[in-house]
């Protein structure tokens, strides 16, 4: 089993636009969802939001669906 730790950057700089016009945060979110989709039933994930104060968006567990919704 694998443990995935996702840390999303929630700072204002992530609202800057990429060349395609989408916010950099949206690109990071898409990448996080792709990684979560790769997890198997025995794998675990935690989702953190980094910013002025770090927050746990989803605690470490096996529920990939809840982790995806937290992202």
Structural commentary:
With 71 residues, the chain is of the alpha+beta class. It contains 2 helices and 3 strands; from the N terminus they run βαββα. The chain has helices at 24-37, 64-70; strands spanning 3-9, 44-50, 55-61. A 3-stranded mixed beta sheet has the order 1-2-3.
Task: Show the helix and strand layout.
Blueprint: E1 3-9, H1 24-37, E2 44-50, E3 55-61, H2 64-70
Parallel strand pairs: 1-2
Antiparallel strand pairs: 2-3
Key phrases:
71 residues; alpha+beta; three-stranded mixed β-sheet
Low-confidence stretches: none
Beta strand %: 25-35%
Number of helices: 2
Query: Which structural category do the helix and sheet elements fall into?
Result: alpha+beta
Strand order of the largest sheet: 1-2-3
Indicate the percent of residues in helices: 25-40%
Gyration radius over CA: 13 Å
- The whole-number mean of residue pLDDT values reads 95
Which geometry do the CA atoms define? Answer: globular
Distance between the termini: 21 Å
The helix/strand series, from N terminus to C terminus, equals EHEEH
Largest sheet: 3 strands, mixed
- The beta-strand count equals 3
């Amino acid at each position: 089993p694998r443990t995935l730790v996702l840390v999303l950057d929630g700072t204002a700089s992530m609202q800057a636009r990429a060349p395609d016009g989408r916010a950099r945060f949206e690109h990071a979110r898409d990448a996080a969802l792709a990684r979560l989709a790769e997890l198997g039933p025995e794998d675990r994930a935690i989702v953190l939001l980094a910013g002025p104060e770090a927050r746990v968006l989803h605690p470490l567990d096996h529920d990939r669906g809840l982790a995806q919704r937290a992202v």
